[in-house]
Design a protein that fits this description.
Blueprint: H1 2-21, H2 32-35, H3 39-43
């Protein structure tokens, strides 16, 4: 039991030291200017990585056909 305890303690110590030395990923939201903004200012920020919705098409022929609704019981 003692050799197993020594091995597990050394393994736990190495994992803790590795976690303590890892550099945390930088987030754009961690910037002090952004943290100082209120919610309305944050809502006005451009978010280029968000998908854009498809543009609305004026004529009905260009829009895809919708599937018929299923009958409800």
């Amino acid at each position: 039991m003692n050799p197993l305890k020594i091995f597990l303690n050394s393994l736990a110590r190495s994992i803790r030291s590795r976690l303590a030395t890892e550099v945390a990923e930088k987030s754009p939201l961690d910037h002090p200017d952004i943290q100082a903004m209120d919610l309305l200012q944050l809502a006005d920020l451009p978010m280029p990585y968000l998908p854009m919705p498809a543009p609305m098409v004026a004529d009905a022929e260009a829009q895809p056909e919708s599937m018929p609704l299923a009958r409800c019981a």
